[in-house]
Design a protein that fits this description.
By secondary structure, the chain is α/β, with parallel strands linked by helices. It contains eight helices and 26 strands. Helix 2 packs parallel to helix 7, helix 4 runs parallel beside helix 7 and helix 5 crosses helix 6. The structure holds adenosine monophosphate and magnesium ion.
Length: 426
């Protein structure tokens, strides 16, 4: 697929090309197009390590010293030099003790050993540690049967990280393990890209906000809450612009306001057939926006483009479709916008589905699944039941998507299916 075509060329669609069919766009192709039109943030800021979880590195982290910094003991035991032992001599005098953080005072006597605790520095001259459980203590000596190999139970300096080595690259998103790794280098501040600013609003005359009574024909606006949750998890700076009625003037005002201050604008509703005209005209007036029918269920209608400098995603209105399109199309785009160079895809693996599945060929379906352990201890999946894109309780019950590719049709119970765990696994 050519990524060189401009958004404008695609949006005007005057020269439709073979691979670009806005009315039937495979999920992967939509991902590729979106990726081609993203401008990640470039502004950097130096922040305290505590605040860096989930942020993306704007400068690489290099090891300023070896980790560990010195050879040290992996066990509570006794340190000695392996040369000082022979088949006959497996008895050594204990001449001192070393604790973690307290190196041996004085020098290590060859032909003897010192008591050593886990993490304590191996004294110069010693090269091997025997675990305390393997020795017999006799007055001021120890004796043992099995002679350990040279270097046993010694953690070598630099075995985790070597001085000068690049530990984490630019574009890496910081995990809990990374926080510890950076701390192990004694680094307390990191240079990261600034947070991305995301504004969102719901559209629809039928939407009631929490706190107001529900009139006939109204529904409470749930999309702003699921979006709030998903965006919060991603560490975005969020601006909630409310529920906006299907009124072109109000919608225009809100879109302009959002575009002024955001890297990303998300809306829900108003992009499906029948309603598209308002938003379509508005978006075409305010920016460059493409309207796609994605070959996926749920989540068929999707608008994507730019309004000013802001990236725009017009999500469908149905509550499940909002979440599915967010996870399948928006999340990865946001990670790239945050500066992440290679966002990992959410892992997928095969398990047996214990319920039958109804599925039409020709589109990718993301059915909601519950991954559970069967009586024999194996992981299996079952569907949550009603797969309508309005049934938000299915998302709440589910812990995974059952991903059914285009060419898959109805499936009997007992078939192997692909599942994709929801984020937040660790
Ligand atoms: P639309 O895409 O605007 O045609 O909306 C599709 C369906 O989703 C309709 O049944 C809407 O009532 C519903 N819907 C749209 N927006 C929301 C929202 N913010 N919260 C809950 N349901 C919504
Ligand atoms: Mg609507």
């Amino acid at each position: 697929m050519s990524t060189k075509k401009s958004l404008l060329e695609l949006a005007s669609n005057t020269t439709p090309c073979d691979e670009y069919d806005p009315n039937s766009m495979p999920v992967d192709q939509a991902r590729q197009y979106i990726k081609a039109f993203l401008s990640p943030v470039t502004k950097k800021e130096n922040i305290n390590l505590h605040a860096a979880l989930g942020r993306v590195l704007a400068e690489e982290i290099r090891a300023t010293h070896n980790v560990p910094n010195h050879d040290n003991s992996a066990m509570d035991g006794y340190a000695f030099n392996a040369d000082d032992l022979s088949e006959e001599l497996t008895r050594l005098k204990v001449t001192g003790a070393i604790f973690a953080g307290n190196p041996l005072t004085g020098s290590f006597a060859r032909g003897a050993c010192v008591r050593i605790m886990t993490g304590a520095a191996i004294p110069t001259g010693a090269d091997t540690v025997i675990a305390q459980e393997r020795v017999e203590t006799l007055d001021d000596s120890i004796q043992f049967k099995d002679v350990p190999t040279r270097g046993a139970n010694v953690r070598l300096a630099g075995e985790d990280l070597q001085a000068g080595q690049i530990v984490l690259n630019i574009g890496h998103r910081i995990s809990p393990a990374d926080l510890g790794l950076i701390a192990s280098l004694g680094i307390g501040e990191v240079m990261v890209y600034r947070k991305i600013r995301v504004s969102f609003f719901s559209t629809g005359d039928e939407l009631a906000s929490i706190g107001n009574p529900l009139e006939t024909g109204q529904v409470y606006d749930s999309n702003r809450y699921t979006l709030f949750g998903m965006l919060s998890r991603m560490g975005a700076e969020i601006q909630d612009l409310g529920a906006i009625p299907d009124d072109p003037l109000l919608l225009e005002k809100t879109l302009i306001k959002a575009a002024e201050s955001s890297d990303v604008i998300l809306t829900s509703g108003g992009v499906s057939v029948g309603e598209a005209d308002y938003m379509k005209q508005l978006l075409q007036k305010l920016g460059q926006v493409l309207f796609w029918k994605i070959a996926m269920k749920p989540g068929r209608p999707l608008a994507f483009g730019k309004i000013g400098n802001a990236h725009y995603f017009g999500l469908p209105g149905n509550p499940v479709a909002v979440m599915v399109t967010f996870y399948q199309l928006v999340r990865q785009a946001m990670l790239i916008l945050m500066g992440e160079l290679k966002p990992a895809s959410t892992p997928m693996f095969n398990v047996i589905c214990t319920t039958p599945i109804r599925k039409l060929k020709g589109r990718t379906e993301f059915q909601r699944g519950i991954l559970y352990t069967s009586e024999d201890g194996n992981w299996q999946v079952r569907t949550t039941g009603n797969q309508s894109s309005g049934v938000l309780s299915s998302m709440s019950q589910a812990n995974c998507f059952i991903v059914l590719d285009d060419d898959v049709g109805n499936l009997e119970a007992g078939t192997s299916v692909k599942v994709q765990l929801f984020e937040g696994v660790i």
